Amino acid sequence: MVIINETTQKLELTYPCTWCYKVVGYERAGIEIAAMEIFCERNYSLEPSKLSRGGKYISMNLELLVHNEDERTYFFETLKAHQHIKMVL
């Protein structure tokens, strides 16, 4: 569900589609390791996004082709649960 202007709407996507996850971790290498472990046989791109003001966290954009809602959600949950990942948006 997405809340837009105080109304609840379901996000309508046409699959397959390219999806971008904003991945936050403590260091770039950790995020790269997580991506390799989770997406070892998939094509994906991983690009630096931002470094926190204090330098404690780094965010990266991870983009890949997802084939359906279940796959998109599975990747989100798997990334979120990885030891090198602090947060996924």
Helices and strands in order:
Elements: E1 2-4, E2 7-9, E3 17-25, H1 28-38, E4 44-51, E5 58-66, H2 69-81, E6 85-88
Antiparallel strand pairs: 1-2, 3-5, 3-6, 4-5
What is the CA-CA span between the terminal residues?
14 Å
- What is the CATH superfamily classification? ACT domain
* Quaternary class: single chain
- Shape by Cα distribution: globular
| Average pLDDT rating | 92
Query: CATH first level: which class?
Result: Alpha Beta
Q: How many helices in DSSP terms?
A: 2
Low-confidence stretches are: none
* Strand order in the largest sheet: 4-5-3-6
Q: Sheet bearing the most strands, described? A: 4 strands, antiparallel
Question: Quick one: how many beta strands?
Answer: 6
Please compute the radius of gyration using only Cα atoms.
Answer: 14 Å
CATH fold group: Alpha-Beta Plaits
Binned strand content: 35-45%
- Named at the architecture level, the CATH assignment is 2-Layer Sandwich
Order of helices and strands: EEEHEEHE
When the domains are counted, the total is 1
Describe the structure.
By secondary structure, the chain is of the alpha+beta class. The protein has one domain: Alpha-Beta Plaits. It is 27% helix and 40% strand. It is built from 2 helices and 6 strands, in the order E-E-E-H-E-E-H-E. It has helices at residues 28-38, 69-81, and strands at residues 2-4, 7-9, 17-25, 44-51, 58-66, 85-88. Strands 4-5-3-6 form a 4-stranded antiparallel beta sheet. It has a two-stranded antiparallel sheet with strand order 1-2. A hairpin with a 2-residue loop joins strand 1 (2-4) and strand 2 (7-9). The mean pLDDT is 92.
